[in-house]
C-alpha cells in the first residue's frame, strides 16, 4: 500500500485571506446601506460620495477575490493528486484480495493435477 | 527379498502410509490455525455505511455543481449591476482574448469568471471523491469474497481430494468420504475467513492511510464554498444598490410613481428571498464538506463493530440531500421580474 500524497502544508490555508475579503464585502454592504439611506432622503451629494467609495471597494474586492480564487484553483492539483493516490490505494487492496481468492482457487486446481500425477505414480509403483 | 521381518514392498507401503498421515496431520493444524485467526473478525462487513457514503458523495457532487452554477449566474448579475454604475468601466475590458494561459479578458477578470473556473475545478475534485467512495464500496462488497465462490471451492477440493485418496487407497489408510468432505468444507471456510480477515484489515489500513487526504480535501472544498458565499454577498449588495438607485430616482412616494415603486420594491423583496435561500444552500454545502472527514472515520468504526450507529455518515448523506433539494428549489424560486433579477435568470 503506497501513499503518494502531497503533504497538507502544501495546500494553502485560506483562512486569513477569506477573512480579509469577508471584511471588504461587509464594508461594501455597509456603504450600500448608507448610499441607500441617502437615495431615499434625496441627499445626492452624500450618495455620490458613497458611490465613489463603493466603486473603490468593489475594485479592491475584485482584485482580492480573484487572487484568492487563483490560489484556490492552484491548490486543486495537490488535492486531486492526494485523492487519486487514495483511490489507487483502495484499488490495490481490491486487486490483492482478488489475487488471494485466485490463489485459493489455483491451489484446488493444482490438487486436481496432482491427482493425475499420483495416479501415474501409483501405477508405476512395484 | 526380506529385511527385518518384511519385504521391501511392505516396507514401502508402510512408509507411504506414514507419509500420508503426516501430511494430513500437518494440514489439519494449518487449517485450524487459519480458522481460529479468522474467527476474531466478523464473518462479513456491514456494507450499508459504504453504500451510504458512496451515495452521499454522488449527492454532494450533484448538489455542489448546482450550487456553483447558481453562484456563477448570481455573481454575473452582480457584476453587471456593479459596472453599470461605474463611469470608469470600459466594455472593451470584457473582450476575451487568447493568451499563453488560455482565454482571458483583456481587463481585470470579473469575479464571475473566476467563480466559473472554480466551479469546474470543484466539479473535477468531487468526481475523484465519487471514484474513491466507489472503490471503498467495491473493497467492502460481499461479491469480492463471496460465499458462493468458496462453496464451489469446497466442492472442487472435495472432488479432487476424493480422487487423490482413491488413487492412494492401495498404499495408505484412506480417510472416508465423510472425513474428506468435512476437511474440504473446513479448509475452504478457513481460506474464506482468512481472506475476509485480510480484506477487513486492508479496509481499516486504507481508511487510516487516506484520512489526511480526505481532511485536506474537505478543508479545500470548505474554503471554496465559503469564498463563494462571500462573492454571493457582494453580488447581492451590488444588485440591491442598483435597485435602490432606481427607486431613489423615482422620488418620494406619490400617486404617479406608486406602480413603479411597487414593482421595484417587489424586486427588492424577491432579491432578499433569493439571496437568503442561496445562503442556506451554500451553508448546507459547507456543512456537507465539514461532515465528510467524520463520516470517513465512521467507515473504520463500522468494520470493527458493524452494529454501531453511524451518525456522521447519516449527517453527510442528509446534508448532501439537503443541498440538492435547496438548489432545485432555488432554481424554481428565481425571481421572475425586474432588470436585475431577469439578468440573473437569463444566464
Compose a concise summary of this entry.
With 126 residues, chain A is an all-alpha fold.
Report on the structure:
Chain A has 126 residues and is mainly alpha-helical. Chain A has a domain at 13-96. Chain A has helices spanning 15-40, 44-124. In chain A, helix 1 packs antiparallel against helix 2 (44-124). Chain B is mostly helical and 347 residues long. Chain B has one domain (11-118, 147-346). Helices cover 78% and strands 3% of the residues of chain B. Chain B contains eight helices and four strands; from the N terminus they run ββααββαααααα. Chain B has helices spanning 8-39, 48-84, 111-140, 147-168, 177-249, 258-304, 311-332, 339-346, and strands at residues 2-3, 6-7, 96-99, 102-105. Chain B has a two-stranded antiparallel ribbon with strand order 1-2. Chain B is elongated. Chain B starts with a strand and ends with a helix. In chain B, 42% of the residues are buried. The chains are: A mainly alpha (126), B mainly alpha (347). Chains A and B meet through helix 1 and helix 2 of A and helix 3, helix 4 and helix 5 of B.
List keywords for this structure.
heterodimer; A: 126 residues; mainly alpha; 2 helices; 85% helix; rod-shaped; B: 347 residues; two-stranded antiparallel sheet; two-stranded antiparallel ribbon; 8 helices; 4 strands; 78% helix; disordered N terminus; disordered C terminus
